[in-house]
Amino acid sequence: MTNEAMQPRTGHSSTAQVVRGSGSYVAEQGSVYRSGVAAESVGSTILWLGMISLSAGKRTSAHRHEGHETALLMTAGKEIEIWSGAKLERCDQVRPGDYLFVPAGVPHVAVNRSTENAEFLGARNDPAANESVVLMPELDDIVP
Predict the structure, then answer these.
(1) CA atoms within 13 A on the CB side of 15
(2) pTM of the entire structure?
(3) Residue 54 and residue 64: Cα distance in Å, rounded?
(4) Which residues form the Cupin type-2 domain (predicted)?
(5) What is the percentage of the chain residues whose pLDDT exceeds 70?
(6) How many other C-beta atoms lie within 10 A of the C-beta of residue 63?
(7) 85-119 pLDDT tens trace
(8) Which of 129, 122, 131, 119 minimizes the C-alpha distance to 71?
C-alpha cells in the first residue's frame, strides 16, 4: 500500500480512487466501524461507505443520527434485534442478507443476543468517518 492511499483527500479527484481497508474504531454508540469511502479518505462530500460490526452479546447505546439516513446490509452473523421509534417501541429481527434502513432522526438500539459477531456493509449520506451521533441515555433502560 502506498502512502498516497493513506493520505486524506480534499475535493474530488479527476480519477477513480481505491481505498485500502483501514483500522477500526469504536463509535460513540458502541458499534465498531471500518471506514472505506469517507470525506477523510477520498474527499467524499455526501457519502460514507464502510463496515460496521456488533460483537456477540453486545448492544449499542440508544441513539439517533439527526442529519443523515443510514442503509445497512447484514453480511454475517446470526440475527440481531433493531429497536426503533420515539420510545423504542418497535423490535425487528435482522438476519444475514437483510437490508435495513434507518431514517434521519429515528431513535434506535441494535442488540446482538447471539454467540456470533454481526457484520454489516453500511452507507449513509454523511461523509464524515466520525458521524454526528446524538446519544439518548434516557431510552437505554427501555431495551432489555
Answers:
(1) 3
(2) 0.86
(3) 17
(4) 52-121
(5) 91
(6) 22
(7) 999 999 999 999 999 999 999 999 999 999 999 99
(8) 122
Instruction: Tell me which amino acid residue 69 is.
Output: E
CB 57 within 8 A of CB 47: no
Contact 45, 127 (CB under 8 A): yes
Q: Are 59 and 113 in contact (CB under 8 A)?
A: no
Q: Taking Cα atoms as reference points, which of 70, 22, 75, 23 lies closest to residue 53?
A: 75
Taken in order of first residue, the domains within the chain and their CATH numbers are 31-142 (2.60.120.10)
Query: Quick one: cell of 84?
Result: 426503533
CA 114 to chain CA centroid, nearest Å: 19
Grid-cell match 458521524, residue found:
131
